[in-house]
Each structure stands twice: as structure tokens, then as C-alpha cells.
């Protein structure tokens, strides 16, 4: 979390955000307010403060957008793999991928527990072993 976003959790104005898409939506709304208020500012210090806030929120929007888009692209690639690995339980693979994404977005106790459960189901389904076997056959 600290590596990706330079913060330990998604908290802003005492509100906690469970997922990256919810947090991204909040940041976009915040950016719209900053831009709207920008025209009414007259003194130099307030302009500098507003510019700093705009840059800070813009940086967060960019970083979180990258993670959200990467996750969506990975999900699309997994969908293509369904045709290659037709005997696999892709629901467990999707569940694991989503749980991993949520845990990276926000490392809450609930998200870590969900990831642990998804990983156990993933291992029990022997998804990696099945993929390796199919690759050896080709």
C-alpha cells in the first residue's frame, strides 16, 4: 500500500474507503470542487494552496486509475484464457484475483481474510498445476 500510494490506507476527511474505485470516485469529485473553487480565489497564498491540493489529488487519481485499469485488463486477459484452459474453475481464479486486488487497494482485516480464503480455494482447485500440465502437453 505504501509503495503504490504513499499512504497506509484510503482515509480522507475521517472517511475510510474500502475499495479503489470508490476512493477514485471520491477523488474525482474532490478535483471537480477544487477546479470550480479555483476561479473565486484572489490572494496569492490561497492560489498556491489550491494548486498544491490540485496537484496532490491529481497524483492520487493518476496512481489509483493505473491500478484500477491494470486490474480490469488482467481480468480481460483471464477471460481469454478460459478458452485455453476450459476444464479449470475460473470462478475461483476470478475470486482470487479480485480478493488480491482489493487487498492491495486497501489492506483491511476483512480484505486480508477474504484473500486468505480465496487463496485456499485457489490452491484446492489446483489451478496452477492444471495450467502447468496443459502447457507440458502443448
Q: Can you lay out the helices and strands and say which pair or pack?
A:
Elements: H1 2-5, E1 11-12, E2 15-16, H2 20-38, H3 44-81, H4 90-105, H5 109-124, H6 127-137
Antiparallel strand pairs: 1-2
Describe this structure in words.
With 138 residues, this protein is an all-alpha fold. Helices cover 75% and strands 3% of the residues. It folds into two domains: 16-81; 86-138, no CATH class. It has a two-stranded antiparallel ribbon. Helix 2 (20-38) packs antiparallel against helix 3, helix 3 (44-81) packs antiparallel against helix 4 and helix 4 packs antiparallel against helix 5. It is elongated and about 70 Å long. The model is unreliable at 1-8 (pLDDT under 50).
Keywords:
138 residues, 6 helices, disordered N terminus, mainly alpha
Mean pLDDT: 79
Distance between the termini: 39 Å
Structural Rg: 20 Å
Strand content: under 5%
- Tally of helical segments: 6
Q: How many E-type strands?
A: 2
Q: Which regions have little confidence, pLDDT < 50, spanning 5+ residues?
A: 1-8
**Pattern of helices and strands:** HEEHHHHH
Summarize the model shown.
A hairpin with a 2-residue loop joins β1 (11-12) and β2 (15-16). This protein is 75% helix and 3% strand.
Amino acid at each position: 500500500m505504501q509503495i503504490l500510494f504513499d499512504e497506509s490506507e484510503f482515509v480522507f476527511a475521517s472517511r475510510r474507503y474500502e475499495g479503489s474505485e470508490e476512493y477514485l470516485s471520491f477523488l474525482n469529485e474532490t478535483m471537480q470542487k477544487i477546479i470550480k473553487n479555483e476561479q473565486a480565489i484572489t490572494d496569492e497564498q490561497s492560489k498556491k494552496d489550491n494548486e498544491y491540493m490540485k496537484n496532490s489529488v491529481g497524483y492520487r487519481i493518476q496512481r489509483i486509475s493505473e491500478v484500477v485499469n491494470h486490474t480490469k485488463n488482467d481480468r480481460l486477459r483471464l477471460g481469454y484464457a478460459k478458452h485455453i484452459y476450459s476444464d479449470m474453475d475460473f470462478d475461483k481464479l476470478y475470486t482470487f484475483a479480485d480478493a488480491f486486488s482489493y487487498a492491495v487497494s486497501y489492506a483491511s482485516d476483512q480484505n486480508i481474510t477474504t484473500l486468505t480464503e480465496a487463496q485456499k480455494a485457489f490452491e484446492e482447485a489446483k489451478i496452477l498445476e492444471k495450467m502447468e500440465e496443459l502447457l507440458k502437453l502443448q
